Amino acid sequence: MAATNNKQNKRSNALVVAEALIVSYVTYLANFLVVNVFEDASRPATTHLIFNIGLVTFFVLVCSLSVGLYEAKLRETFRGIIRRIFVSLALTYFVVEILTNSLFISMRMHVYFLPVAAGLIIISLVIFRYFTNRLGLLGLGRTRLVVIGAGERASIIEKRMRRDVDRLGFELLGFIPIPGDNREDGIRNEKLIHVKIDDNFRNFVIDNDIEEIVIACDQRRGTLPIEVLFDCRLRGVEITDLLDFMERETGQIVVNLMYPSWVVYSNGFNSQNYLRDALEYGLNAVLGLFILMFTWPFMLLTAMIIYFDDGRRTGTSVFYKQERVGLNGKMFKIVKFRSMRPDAEKDGAKWASKNDDRVTRIGHFIRKYRIDELPQLWNVFRGEMAFIGPRPERPEFVEKLIREIPYYNQRHNVKPGLAGWAQLNYPYGASVEDSMEKLKFDLYYVKHQSFMLDMLILIRTVEVVLFGKGR
């Protein structure tokens, strides 16, 4: 698993380095074109040119990261990648234009420098991404792997990873059926490899250049060839449990396949990070104040629109307070802008649906772009929520979900947040089934929580706001 993760990290790092070089060169080329095409353009000083190349390159990389272009497992079509490139360049253009016209006035280039640079960078990155994604460049080939097992557990790969885009990081040779597999509920459309896992299995591994073996059999006791797998491991072949494989490739923990010993012996679930715990509230409070400085006009405008839309007529507050379950099961009142009618829950608590007719006219807009979540800064200042963490759920639903979904209560081991890993990967949830899917991502966050993961989620949340995903 570590070797494959290293390959994914190398691919991401190679992308960053390669695109940094491309952007730097194209930005230099843009200056060359401007100087030689436009008569009023003079050759800039070398220091000015280097500064602007560095500034543009830096913000292209940061903005590309913010829209997920350097995610090792970016599930996106090529058209979607092009859209993200356009957005990252638009953000870069906006930021660089502001900086060079306010803080770095002496470093300003010709008026056409930035537009030409942005256009050339877009064309270059689109072409580069096409050959990188379609032709497998950078010399970082996919991992060749085989799955031992073709029963019910192995079928999770077939069901959850059907598309080619789900298998960008590996090449699956096929599934090896073994005794004890539940074939009735097993693999249906994938390739089956009928090979005996005995002393000659190493020859099969060598002949097919297999780098990883995923263990996904339904019954291990008496059926799993430990000595053969031990020999393969000594020869450098990765041996990966199905749960670890799904966690690595999909960014979630498959709750319905979990077993206690896997939790006990697996890495992660580190809660005793005293430095992180000590700094958490301070960082959240500072970040909350920073965001409040930029968003208070939008919050004021939203409150006025809600009031004149139906608040003045009904006498209902523009805010909506609701009890939620927080850290270690402690209750608190969450604060949001009201996006539903005052009588939305006259018949009791119910799940919000995607096209809920209880949502007001302004409610549809503020929910789409998550403006309704901004008053939760108050909960952050009170220490009841963090910026990053599982979304807090209502106690009426939590009681039901704990009974129906295994390990659901473990999501309350961390402080709830404004944004979370589940919101980035599974945008909408309005049922027990959706809660199960979100729990898989929430437990992944609980297991891998770290400052770097929090920063990644915080940056990626920009994508949710820009594209109007999630809720």
From TrEMBL:
It is a multi-pass membrane protein. Keywords: Membrane, Transferase, Transmembrane, Transmembrane helix. It is found in: Membrane. Coiled coil: none annotated. It holds the Pfam family Bac_transf. The keyword Isomerase does not apply. Its main location: membrane. The keyword Transmembrane helix applies. InterPro entries: Bact_transf, EPS_sugar_tfrase, Sugar_tfrase_EpsB_2. Residues 284-466 form the Bacterial sugar transferase domain. The chain crosses the membrane at residues 12-37, 49-70, 82-105, 111-132, 281-308. Belongs to the bacterial sugar transferase family. This is TIGR03013 family PEP-CTERM/XrtA system glycosyltransferase.
